[in-house]
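step=encode ok
step=design start
structure_in=
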């Protein structure tokens, strides 16, 4: 079975083709970061207009690259939510229209379900149940995953998402949007413990997160100090250490509370090497297993959408004809298969 995946939920136009015998045939990403960096964040109207221009050429070039004709596809999977309404509408409209005209099923996919399953693209030893730490620009969630569509959110951020906090502090440090990856690079030159930032909410029993206080603490530290290169690196280091340690403490607690031994790291922030190393050390300590993707499959991509589409291709909502987007869509609303 071959499924074409389309992802346009935010500021990346992505197209991929997944074949269940061979694996990924293509995984194309057109990033709009240049377009938005001037504004320091995603401008929704510009994002959707750019998706309109890029999506059809990207689908044509992906088919060409995979040496496939449309009749050789068995379905089209597209991100139906959550995300920016205008951006989602582009992918949903194109996905459903092409599927209708090519007479193949069109499968709406939940963006975060795509992230949860993404390590399965590379690791066929990843089996249910497991704990997923979803850390992206819009979400920070701990999810107990029992199967496809069987999700229990056991912890989440009460305010900013981890990626959002990375991007906001990066901006205050003078780093171009989206700053998460660059902040992490700069933090490598930072002196440990020159600044010590708070680890929010680690002393309560919950598995929830809050990053807004940490953000304010970082902003005040930036305002009070010189902006020389070493100080910028030291602040970046203190901030990254605080976020990672907070995520680590909550993950360890969630594994203990649920009795799960397998941990999946997913979403853009899971591309962070320091985080991956610290989490791997913790998992070795508890004799568990850890799974994460190569960096290009951690950040937004259509490979994960095509993969989930393949899993869900026979479900009922493939038959509906309406163009529907779900800008706010909880994982817990999904049906299990
Ligand atoms: O999953 P994703 O690509 O998009 C959303 O669904 O939000 O995540 C993007 C987020 C951005 O906030 C970006 O700064 C962050 O992931 N990110 C990182 C790293 N690479 C991407 N944050 C920290 N360290 C990284 N290496
Ligand atoms: Zn994402």
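sequence_out=
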């Amino acid at each position: 079975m071959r499924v074409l995946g389309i992802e346009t939920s935010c500021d990346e136009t992505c197209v991929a083709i997944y074949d269940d015998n061979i694996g990924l045939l293509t995984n194309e990403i057109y990033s709009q970061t240049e377009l938005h960096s001037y504004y320091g964040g995603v401008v929704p109207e510009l994002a959707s207009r750019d998706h309109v221009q890029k999506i059809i050429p990207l689908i044509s070039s992906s088919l060409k690259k995979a040496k496939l004709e449309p009749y050789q596809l068995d379905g089209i999977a597209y991100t139906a939510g959550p995300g920016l309404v205008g951006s989602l509408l582009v992918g949903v409209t194109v996905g459903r229209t092409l599927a209708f005209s090519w007479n193949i099923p069109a499968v709406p996919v939940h963006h975060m379900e795509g992230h949860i399953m993404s390590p399965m693209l590379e690791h066929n030893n990843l089996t249910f149940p497991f704990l997923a730490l979803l850390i992206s620009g819009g979400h920070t969630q701990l999810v107990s995953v029992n199967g496809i569509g069987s999700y229990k959110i056991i912890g989440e951020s009460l305010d900013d998402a981890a990626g959002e906090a990375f991007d906001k502090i990066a901006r205050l440090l003078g780093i171009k949007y989206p700053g998460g990856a660059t902040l992490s690079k700069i933090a490598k030159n930072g002196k440990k413990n020159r600044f010590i930032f708070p680890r929010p909410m680690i002393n309560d029993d919950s598995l929830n997160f809050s990053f807004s206080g940490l953000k304010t603490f970082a902003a005040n530290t930036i305002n009070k100090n010189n902006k020389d290169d070493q100080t910028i690196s030291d602040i970046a280091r203190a901030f990254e250490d605080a976020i990672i340690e907070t995520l680590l403490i909550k993950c360890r607690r969630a594994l203990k509370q649920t009795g799960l031994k397998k941990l999946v790291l997913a979403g853009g922030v899971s591309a962070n090497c320091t985080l991956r190393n610290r989490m791997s050390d913790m998992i070795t300590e508890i004799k568990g297993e850890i799974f994460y993707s190569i960096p290009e499959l951690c950040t937004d991509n259509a490979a994960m959408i095509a993969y989930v589409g393949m899993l869900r291709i026979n479900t009922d909502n493939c038959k509906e004809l309406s163009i529907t987007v779900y800008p706010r869509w909880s994982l817990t609303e999904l049906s299990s298969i």
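step=design ok
step=annotate ok -> Residues 10, 136-138, 163, 166-167, 178, 180-181, 184, 267-269, 271-272, 299-300 surround KG4 (ligand 1) (CB under 6 Å).
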